[in-house]
Design a protein that fits this description.
five-stranded parallel β-sheet, 206 residues, Rossmann fold, alpha/beta, single chain
Length: 206
Amino acid sequence: MSVRVVNLGLPKSGTTTLATALRAAGWRVADHKLRHGEGHPAKLSGTFVGRQIYDGYFETGDPLARLDRFDALTEISGLKGARSFWPQCDFAVLKAMRVARPGLLFVATIRPAEAISDSMRRWQGLGEERLPGGAVPGLPAGYGATDAQRVRWIAGHYDMLRDVFGDDPRFLELDVAGPDARARLAAHLGIDLPWWGRANVNPVRA
């Protein structure tokens, strides 16, 4: 088994929807964290997917070297206190993935930047507390507490991906709310998707 697809979308861009759809299709998925009780090797259990990507990159040059028991990595960032991993924002890591894995596919789940920012604001302190307090590529400590700053960072991330990948057929920018999202993803991966919908939706708060 080896990793077949990596999602480069930011948190709250539809990453859990993608994970749910791929699991329903029978794929083994790593989403955000390798949680205890899911049968991971002891050295992986409880760690962020992003941590394992960076360990693989710095130890071997292949960012996915530690994750080949999975078919898909659907959210690869991690932010908790001083631990901050954002490989989808890191050009060197993206290049290493493409060089080490010529057949690897990429997806970038996306929603309007304003909608992603609003979801971040309402998700467990991510928008107004954790992002401004973290070391995040493109968003230095002290930035990201306002919608305007988050929107600029979010838009810049997806612009960067478009510049990096251009018209590479291995890359799919996927609007998860689009009417053709399911069909486009299925065609990109060459599989049937028995489920498509919305997962991990924020509660509505003021």
